[in-house]
Amino acid sequence: MKILLIDPPYGYREIGGTKQNFRYVLNKIPSLGLAYLAATVEREGHDVRVVDCTFNQEKMLTDIAKEFCPQIIGITATTPTFKNAAYMAGLLQQILPEAVYICGGSHASVCPEDILNVGVFDFAIIGEGERTFLELIAHIKDKQDIQPDYIHGLAFKRDGDIIITPARERIENLDSLPLPARHLLPPLKRYHSTPASYRKLPIAVIMSSRGCPNQCTFCDRTVFGEKFRKRSAANVMLEVEEVISKYGAKEIRFFDDTFTIDPYHVENICRQMKKIPMHTPWTCLTAVTAVNSDMLKMMYDAGCWQVLFGLESGEDYILERLGKNNTVEQNKKAVFWAYEAGLRIRADFLVGSPWETKETFMKTIEFAKSLPLDFAHFNKFVPYPGTSIYKDLKNKGYRFNFDNGAYINNQCDFIYVPEAFTKTEFSQCLDRAYKEFYLRPNYLMRRLFSIRTFTEFTGNLKGFYSILSL
Questions:
Q1: Contacts for 397 with CB less than 8 Å, ≥ 6 apart
Q2: What's the whole-model pTM score?
């Protein structure tokens, strides 16, 4: 069958608000979910195309749809991109009314009712999509073979009622999946992460595992679940070697929720990464509770030059309410372990949760300034559906509209502001956090002397301009 997969567009206004200060330093990375989905159905002999609307304008998408004439159109959607996903489906429905429209991704997994009630999607896929999508294709191709009621991980409408089938078990053997179909995506050189996260371009994003056992109350784990599942080091290295030799990657970013959960997994990958010619640099996301000094030194020796910690707050009470299972002191210890190992350190802070006050916000800023961090991101809290905090706030009577302000970098539009702040006060505190952290003379000198590549220099320059323009 002919299948068109779409990553919906998002604009600078949506991500950065009216200020758009961070428009030049935002992530622009490929959808690994769509790439895995495309590879899975392509392996079964279907004709697949992928359109990343980050690069393709509306007319280009409609031209591709008219020329290709797909029978199935699949669109991925997060909560911030759902509005655009529905718009793209409605646009294509005018051109291809006979096609079957399917939505997957985090928003479809958490809010299948939203997907089906918008009136343009026939099905919503809940959770990991690879096997569910294959069975759904079989149903669409020959409705006598399998009925949608028996496809686990699916939602659809029948006679006006929404039917949600039983949850599908997660894929245990991740090595059984084909490597992501990057040949169907735009060239790797067109993508880039935020400048704070790379030294060399192009950079390839790879996931060596799925699932996160951590219980953060602000994080949704509906798609990949809570059980940690890892690929073999050999399978991961096949992808590393492919992105380097075939797609020209000069750096790797491991995009696992917590790359270091399994020490043996980390050790095996580090051992293999040391064998790569030219010692390709790499980075990863991790947690302070999942590292130790020896592990961080091993990672540095294997080419890792930076780690990203989710420190979230400088106040223990807030860390407890966020479900972080660690303390400010533990955060500090892990940061210094990484620093002593020779690693550069990025830190995410989550500000504006229901327990935030002006005092705790300032405490977080001071805590960030007290650490040897290379980069700090002060992400505003957004109560995303599927999270524990979202459920608690809804039970208290809060209602949320995610059409504007759903991106954590948008410092102009707010879906939620803690009771201790007005919107203006909270916006001013966000600006103050970035300025106080980044415009310190000693920090600027340290950053200047730590730059190792021209690509890193230009990225840092863009970031500096973004802070100045706040």
A1: none
A2: 0.93
